[in-house]
# Entry
Amino acid sequence: MKPKIKITKRDLLFFFAGIVFTAIISLILNWENNVRDFKEGFNEGYNSTQKEEITH
# Structure
């Protein structure tokens, strides 16, 4: 016999709320690394775009 699994809207709400909560906690706990990596990636992309515009 297959067990009947009933997934409610409440179950889905708490599942996705848990994912969002985990992502927010991770962002807060690793704030310095996230800011450093964001700035590094932004500057890298910005500089590569500037080089492409100069050569074209």
